[in-house]
Write a structure and sequence with these properties.
Layout lengths: L3 E6 L10 H10 L2 E7 L6 H10 L4 E5 L4 E4 L3 E4 L8 H7 L6 E8 L8 H21 L3 E6 L2 H10 L5 E4 L5 H9 L3 E4 L8 H7 L5 E3 L19 H12 L3 H15 L10
Parallel strand pairs: 1-2, 2-3, 3-6, 6-7, 7-8, 8-9, 9-10
Antiparallel strand pairs: 4-5
Helix pairs in contact: 5-6, 6-7, 8-9
Length: 269
């Protein structure tokens, strides 16, 4: 399988509004086969669907409510159940086009959670979206900042069998609990400057996918990340694992197809 799958990116971000055509074209030239476009809030759902229709067979939509929500003008807070009110009808409307529910999860970074009730709100939002994913037979595309263990435990409690944990910042030993549950972990280009190197050492290649999280988590801080940087993740994994770049490409793409079977229609060997 010659090519990469970016299992988690924000191609709908305003950072790409001026040159999204060029970014997509460059991605294809760099060997990408597909991008999974994840959402953070209901306000961008229609934009993601439009991008997936405009770049049909290359951009695949994932809709979900992120554990951190923007409050205009420039504040952020933890997600609450009412954030799902606008999201659920749109998820229902486009359920046949979705490849995953995401980006969902928990974020217990202290500036977003000041009390146990804040954490509980996030849990309730994740539980409801886990239920929706099971009802629709879709995997979850999961965020878990400062909440690795609680996230994996909640997914297991909810009987989630198909999940991608993106840019996991928890301990490798906690990640291995996710591996036992059959979960996958996606690695962004920021691995070259992060603690995730320890994680990749321990994770079996059969549980690793690639992501860019564009426009965030690029190889350089404060520089817009793009899907073309997926190769940086793959090269770094191949160095850490002591296997060829071709092997990393092949295995991570097969992993993506196992987790997101709707990609198979677009990606033929």
């Amino acid at each position: 399988m010659q090519g990469y799958v970016d299992c988690h990116c924000h191609i709908s971000a305003g950072d790409f509004d001026k040159d999204v055509e060029e970014v997509i074209e460059n991605s294809k030239k760099a060997g990408l086969l597909a991008l999974l476009a994840v959402a953070e809030h209901a306000g961008e759902f229609n934009k993601i669907i439009e991008l997936s229709q405009r770049f049909s067979g290359f951009v695949f939509p994932c809709l979900g409510v992120h554990p951190v929500q923007e409050v205009p003008p420039h504040q952020q807070r933890g997600a609450a159940p009412q954030d799902l009110d606008a999201a659920i009808p749109v998820i229902e409307k486009y359920k046949d086009e979705l490849v995953a529910i995401g980006e969902v999860g928990l974020d217990f970074t202290p500036r977003f959670v000041s009390s146990e009730s804040d954490k509980e709100n996030q849990r309730q939002v994740l539980i409801r979206q886990a239920q929706i994913a099971k009802e629709l037979d879709l995997p979850l595309n999961v965020h878990s900042r400062s909440a690795g263990r609680p996230t994996i435990h909640l997914l297991k409690e909810q009987g989630v069998e198909k999940a991608l944990l993106h840019a996991f910042d928890g301990k490798p030993s906690v990640a291995m609990e996710g591996v036992k549950a059959g979960y996958f972990f996606s690695i962004p280009p920021s691995i070259i400057r992060s603690e995730q190197q320890k994680l990749v050492k321990q994770l079996p290649l059969e549980n690793i996918c690639l992501e860019t999280d564009s426009p965030a988590l690029g190889p350089e801080k404060q520089v817009r990340n793009e899907p073309i940087n997926i190769r940086i993740s793959a090269e770094y994994i191949s160095t850490i694992k002591g296997v060829s770049l071709e092997t990393v490409m092949e295995v991570t793409t097969q992993n993506a197809l196992r987790l997101f079977p709707k990609l198979k229609s677009a990606i033929r060997p």
